[in-house]
Fold this sequence. Notes:
- The protein has one domain: Collagenase (Catalytic Domain) (3-Layer(aba) Sandwich).
- It has helices at about 15-25, 55-60, 115-135, 155-160, 165-180, and strands at about 1-5, 30-35, 45, 50, 70-75, 80, 85, 90-95, 95-100, 185-190.
- Strands 2-1-5-9-8-10 form a six-stranded mixed beta sheet, with helices on both faces. Strands 3-4-6-7 form a four-stranded mixed beta sheet.
- By secondary structure, it is α/β, with parallel strands linked by helices.
- About 35% of the residues lie in helices and about 20% in strands.
- The chain is built from five helices and ten strands.
- One zinc ion (ZN) binds near residues 142, 166 and 167.
- One zinc ion binds near residues 129 and 133.
Amino acid sequence: MKLYIAPLGTVDERVLARICEVIEEQVGVECATMSPLENPRYAYDERRCQYDCKAVLERIKKKCPEDALGILGVTHVDLFLPVLKYVFGMSEVGGKCAAISLYRLRPEFNEEGPDEEKLLKRVEKTALHEIGHILGVTHCRDPRCVMRASTTVEHTDAKEPRFCPSCKELVRWELRLRSLEGKRPSVPRK
Ligand SMILES: [Zn+2]
Ligand SMILES: [Zn+2]
């Protein structure tokens, strides 16, 4: 079982490499970077000047190889959900697709100086969080666990790029189930 990382348009190699690294290390599944998919212009909402995350998920889901554990889209555009001002990422809980946005994770966006390492740390936590959702793990109350919900970058900065022991156990359990049976029904979750 492999997880596919799909840049939506051009995304820095170092960002993609870091995502693969953290997932391979923390989830223990092989990651492969796909050649870039289209920029999500199809998801642009003129009223909000942002991009509809659900439209992005629907599109990338179609690109997910049959035998894959899942696909994670990575984009520079600002993603939203109808009920939320923005999202750092979103996934189909227990499903196969997820997407993350670098837009609001960039230190420059948050009036901090450019800092690549800070960006990479936020990206790896956001990616791991969404992969956790793909594997059916819901939000965790442990403030350092990567599955803690993040609505600001401060929340993201406070987390560790790893699962707490309970979430880790759920990940292992789900991986075991998936290797035994086929995929299960899923619902979207931010
Ligand atoms: Zn946890
Ligand atoms: Zn979440």
